Amino acid sequence: METLEDKMIKDIISESLGKSMSYKAYRDLVEELTANNSTTGTEKTEALVNYTMLNDRRMKRWDKTVKVSEEAKTKVHNFERKVTWLVITESWCGDAAHIMPVINKIAELNDNIDYKVVLRDENDGLMNAFLTNGGKAIPKLIMIDNQTGEVENTFGPRPSVATNMVNDYKAEHGGLTPEFKEDLQRWYNKDKGQSTIEDLVDLLA
Questions:
Q1: Which of 174, 140, 172 minimizes the C-alpha distance to 157?
Q2: Mean pLDDT of successive 10-residue stretches along the chain, which has 205 residues
Q3: What is the CA radius of gyration of the chain?
Q4: How would you write 66-83 as a 3-class SS string?
Q5: Is residue 123 within 8 Å of residue 88, measured between CB atoms?
Q6: Pairing of strands 151-155, 21-22
Q7: How far apart, in whole angstroms, are the C-alpha atoms of residue 134 and residue 86?
Q8: What domains are defined for the chain?
Q9: Which residues contact 95 (CB under 8 A, 6 or more apart)?
Q10: Is the pTM of this model over 0.90?
Q11: Distance between alpha carbon 119 and the CA centroid of its chain, in Å?
């Protein structure tokens, strides 16, 4: 029997899906914001504007260069149920710039996967329903069964390998330093989206 909480979450998801956009529309939005020296979100600081510009370049690069192995392609092709991957993000988010193009590469391989994007600050109820360790961490992917409306799984805000790196560093140092954040960016560049692909394929198992 569906609980009141389950119904509330379904209603929140339904409302957010009504405001969602395609990945292409999101990319177009980020390009437009970059051209206008702006950013998504409720804060429009110079730093966040600069992150949006940087992320636009990152996403352009990953859109062109992410490679999916034949083994991963086969697993994605074999997925037969219709699902929606609803992703919460903002244009200034560094992790999202590395991850969202990879999500798109996987979603493009199977018409049963509908990839939709919403902005965090415009969907507070949705974000609050899918916190990570009590925080509004993004990007956050919510996998929804299209037939039942049930949430099947989530992914994010980072691939599991990077999550372990972050957790280990926080445990040792009490927080993330600028130096660690630079190391994490280098890790993303070296990993080339492969850890994210593995985690996404696992969602479809």
A1: 140
A2: 84 97 98 98 96 98 98 98 98 98 98 98 97 96 96 97 95 93 96 98 95
A3: 17
A4: CCCCHHHHHHHHCCCCCE
A5: yes
A6: unpaired
A7: 20
A8: 4-203 (3.40.30.10)
A9: 138, 139, 156, 157, 158, 162
A10: yes
A11: 11
